[in-house]
Design goal:
This protein is an alpha/beta fold. Helices cover 38% and strands 19% of the residues. Strands 3-2-1-4-5-6-11 form a 7-stranded parallel β-sheet, with helices on both faces. Helix 2 packs parallel to helix 3 and helix 7 crosses helix 10.
Length: 313
């Protein structure tokens, strides 16, 4: 199978390319930079074919995809700087990337009759209540520009294609890039007290595990909407931080002990600072994965342990 992957300079694109290589699929990576710009870790993605691509350029997308003639496109590229997206001078650019760029890819996938997998987010919902969001729920009420433009991307895919997977994810972390875990580890080294919100609830997603599921999906024709995060239960960002530090200490890093650094739970309102509204309820119902024969991701606790070992804190 030949697969074209966008956004390989990011956390998920990096891992999707490596998973394709592991299974003997031909992967072609793309991103906005002239050369692959992810970590130089010597993994398969650093050696696989790469093509510079601006997804907002419709003609360039057509040329790149028609030339590659893939069996499937895994579309990881996105504007993900949630707070920055709220700036008046950024909104148009965010929409160009997340909505128009996605529509460009979907249009060519339709012409080529190839599968498309689009990564979306729980931010397409309003994040209220406590009930997990179901993948086929259409009660969209995004709270911010990022969520609105990702929803517009979803609609562009669903309107233009029949052979599509829309996979909503949340709280993403991987070896190739910045994420919440790295931020907390850095803060834990510098501060003796950290304030973390305890009223936003969800589940983390390790891109290494997610990449395996996404390749499982494109090997099938079980199209539709899905939700995918690691298993292990719903938690707050505060709970997550406590477990990050607990596991780091268990690995011999005493600087993260409760005696050295105190983690204080606060409400979103008390925490303040965020420009973009954040959802309180990021619980995603993942039961459709099992129903369609896909293997769920391991627990987030297990994923966290493997991740901390991988980044060698």
């Amino acid at each position: 199978m030949k697969v074209f992957v966008t956004g390989v300079g990011g956390q998920l694109g990096h891992d999707v390319m490596n998973e394709l290589a592991k299974r003997g699929h031909a992967g072609i990576g793309s991103d906005i930079t002239p050369q692959y710009s992810g970590i130089a870790d010597g993994s398969a993605v650093t050696k696989m074919p790469y093509e510079q691509l601006d997804i907002t350029d419709a003609a360039a997308v057509e040329t790149a995809l028609a030339g590659a003639a893939p069996d499937a496109v895994v579309h990881c590229a996105a504007w993900t700087a949630v707070d920055l997206a709220e700036d008046d001078d950024k909104v148009e650019k965010v929409r160009l990337v997340n909505a128009a760029g996605t529509a460009n890819i979907a249009r060519v996938c339709r012409k080529l009759d190839c599968k498309m997998l689009y990564l979306s987010t729980d931010y397409v919902f309003d994040g209220q209540g406590t009930k997990p969001w179901e993948p086929d729920c259409r009660d969209y009420r995004p709270l911010n520009v990022y969520g609105q433009t990702k929803l517009e991307g979803e609609l562009a895919v669903a309107e233009q294609l029949q052979k599509y997977f829309i996979v909503r994810i949340a709280w993403v972390f991987g070896v190739n890039g910045k994420n919440f875990i790295r931020t907390m580890l850095n803060l834990g080294k510098k501060c003796d007290t950290i304030r973390v919100v305890n009223d936003q609830i969800g589940t983390p997603t390790y891109t290494f595990d997610l990449a395996r599921l996404l390749v499982d999906m494109i090997e099938t024709e079980k199209y539709g909407y899905y939700h995918a995060t690691n298993e292990g239960g719903y938690i707050s960002w505060y709970d997550f931080t406590k477990e990050i530090f607990r596991q780091a200490e268990a690995m011999g890093h005493d600087e993260y002990s409760e005696e050295r650094v105190k983690v204080c739970p606060v409400t979103t309102e008390e925490y303040g600072v965020s420009k973009a509204k954040r959802p309180f309820n990021s619980r995603l119902d993942k039961s459709k994965l099992k129903e369609n024969g896909f293997t769920p991701l391991p627990s987030w606790q297990d994923a966290l342990q493997r991740y901390l070992q991988a980044i060698e804190i």
